[in-house]
Amino acid sequence: MNGHPSRDGWYTAGELDCFPVPPPRERPSRLVLLGAPGAGKGTQARLLCESLRACHLSTGDLFRAARDQCASSPAMRAAIEAMNRGELVPEELVIRMVRERASCLRCQGGFVLDGFPRNQRQAYALDEILADLNVALEAVVYLELPLEEIIARLSGRRTCVECRAVFHVSSNPPSRSDICDYCDGRLEQRTDDQPDAIRVRMQVFDAETLALVEFYERLGKLVRISARGTPEQIRDRVLQALDRNVSEITT
Ligand code: AMP
After folding, report:
1. Under 8 Å between Cβ of 67 and 13
2. Which of 23, 41, 158, 215 lies deepest, with the highest CB count within 10 Å?
3. pLDDT at res. 3
4. Do 41 and 133 form a contact (C-beta atoms < 8 A)?
5. Which residues participate in catalysis according to the annotation?
6. pLDDT at 1
């Protein structure tokens, strides 16, 4: 996929190696992205991973992949139904899934974690997993955006069914309508980007995830970034705030 590691390790919980195996970095980026649904976490994760040559680790992608493959376990089917309604999936399952993928968190290529943690219990679990691996988070990037912009973004969002790249019908359109620029896959509107599901997801974010902003601020890990502007402007803002020199990293 686009010269990036295939993320096989993430999708198969380490049963398959990524291709290519990410080369070790002198200073691997280990980031968490926080933001309301529609704040642009998926797009930023992709751009940041390109710049930092890190791997995009999304828990939402794991559930969507399971749904596309018609997941057969009852626990996973229940998780997918919860996701389709815009609710969080049971956290024992999510935490177990992330724990099973510890090799991705330890990877010397670094990572951008998108969609996990989503509440306090998951944040404690992540802390524990990373401590066991002797890995430290570099920063938690919080993408901030006003509600009306969030709604506009979500309703125009389109996702590739193959590689999960994210586009937007007006602000980040694909070069061919409904076709992915990266892999020629079909673009679709996510089930949980329908209006009812969006409402539920915003409530879940306010009730559960917002508390993490304060939690990581207290730990001195939080980097607040305005998520207004083009995807590239936002990415540059993040890299600047992290004190990363893009040209040094991308060459
Ligand atoms: P996302 O792509 O991160 O917006 O995730 C899509 C959906 O997957 C969410 O609305 C949840 O239903 C589910 N999901 C993803 N990550 C988590 C998580 N860490 N905890 C609970 N549910 C999650």
Report:
1. no
2. 41
3. 52
4. no
5. 41, 118, 157, 190, 201
6. 42
Q: Could you tell me the CA-to-CA distances from 129 to 27, 123, 125, 204 in Å, in that order?
A: 20, 10, 6, 24
Tell me the best of 34, 89, 116, 126 to mutate to test the pocket of ligand 1, counting ligand atoms within 8 Å of each CB and taking the most. 89
Name the closest-CA residue to atom 5, ligand 1: 60
* E strand intervals along 182-221: 187-188
Q: Which atom of ligand 1 is nearest to the CA of 37?
A: 4
Give the nearest ligand 1 atom to 42 CA: 2
Give the distance (Å) from ligand 1 centre to CA of residue 55.
18
Contact 148, 24 (CB under 8 A): no
Report d(CA 238, CA 251) in Å as an integer.
19
Q: Please tell me whether the peptide bond between 174 and the residue prior to it is cis, using omega within 30 degrees of 0.
A: no
C-alpha torsion sign, points 208, 80, 82, 144: positive
Query: What distance separates the 2 farthest-apart alpha carbons in the chain?
Result: 47
